[in-house]
Amino acid sequence: MPRHPAQAPCLVYANARGEIKDLPDLLMAGRSGQDFKPPPLKALIPLPPGSELFVLPGRQPVGIDPTSGEALLLAEDPEEPGTPAQAVAAFMAPAHTAILWAAFQNKDPQAPPLPLFAYTAVGWYQDDFWVCGFRSDDDRRQEFGRYRPAAIQRRTKERLAALPANRLVQHLGKCCLTYGCPAAVNYFMDKFEAPLPSSPHCNARCLGCISLQPAGCCPATQERIKFVPSPAEIAEIAAGHLEKTGHVVSFGQGCEGEPLLQDTTLAAAVKLIRQRTSRGRINCNTNAGRPEAVATLSAAGLDALRVSLNSAQASYHRRYYRPLDFSLEEVRESIRIMKNAGKFVSLNYFILPGFTDDPAEFTALGRLIADCRPDFIQLRNLNMDPDWYLRGIDFKPTGPAMGIPAWRAALAREFPHLGFGYFNPPAGPESGRAVKPAGAGNTTPRGTGSPGNQRSKTRGPASGRHRK
Questions:
Q1: At what angle do helices 328-340 and 314-321 cross, to 10 degrees?
Q2: Which label site among 46, 80, 429, 462 has the fewest CB atoms less than 10 Å from its CB?
Q3: In whole angstroms, what is the distance from residue 108 CA to residue 112 CA?
Q4: pTM of the prediction?
Q5: Residue 268: CB atoms within 10 Å
Q6: Averaged in consecutive runs of 10 residues, what is the pLDDT profile of the chain (468 residues)?
Q7: CB 442 within 8 A of CB 48
Q8: Domains and CATH numbers, the chain
């Protein structure tokens, strides 16, 4: 069972040098949409191994007054008056989903958008960092420390040398050795799911694209593939991996555009793979904007489709994806095509507390599920500056947020066929997966804060009033 703290953790913040400190005078807060609130104790788990802590430049932390319960802005570092306090967030290890995101306010209008990570609420209690989230999948395919670095280096270099003419293998080698991509690592270690990037182009201009950003935006986290691999290059990787593992191979990675733009190549690759092995699942991660391409791939033998979805509401879907030639209706049609063919469909549904669990969004998602009958929902945290996202889609709340645990429970009650997890499953839908406890974090603050006197009361956006 997950471990929870006996009482509310205190606020953590960073000083001007980026040193992380705790402030016992204020309790940890979380944020849902524009609302700041204390996390329930049962929503807090120790910082999972493999997680990271981020200092958020230009953002000031918000905590909870332990006496009044009010949300208070920590404007200055209590130990160094006159210098700003900086907010701190956790980037949780894979297989964990946020319940509340980090409580901060952007007080610097010139501050650039935050890099493309997820920013989860974090606090400090009894020598541990605690995050507001839960383990959403017991699959260990991206577990921290699962392989020794020397073994990764050796196995990767051996395969690169063995397949020098396969451009896709060489590309994945860079993903593994340069970026530490967990999917690429798993391929070279002959474990779990293997990636098959294949498209240098896209038919959307997502606000939070992780592989290609316009000048002046946040930097891309990795280099996008620059070529279309041949069916033979793809099949050489995929067939061997499936034969060894019986797991999953997937088109549509963070280092490429939209795989459905290469449907002719991918269909030929799928046929080649299935000529060589019947093992495992061939999956495509996609924006699902081209139903005709989905039909082509399904007929060729594609087993599964993972549909990326920020929202089940057409206006928010359009403002996030900024599609060139499709709409949410094409996405729905792609799901229907796969389901009519008896194939597996999951929604890669981006989780942002305050938006995902908004009443209108929950209703819209329920309608999509009832109409299209996807099998599985992957509870993926939105990797994007939350303020940038909410502004970019022009979000208007329709009522109090449900809360992510209540949102998930309501979906499970309404749609008992649905499975929930974090990764592409290697077999059929699995609802009600067992959840294992996350491990404790092992990072300690570099100092301990003392009660401060530069805090602004905030209810939602900071009011600008000061308490001395």
A1: 100
A2: 80
A3: 9
A4: 0.88
A5: 17
A6: 92 95 97 96 96 95 96 94 95 97 88 91 97 95 88 97 97 94 95 96 85 59 86 97 96 92 98 97 97 98 98 97 96 98 98 98 98 97 95 97 98 97 77 32 35 35 29
A7: no
A8: 10-136+439-467 (no CATH), 149-421 (3.20.20.70)
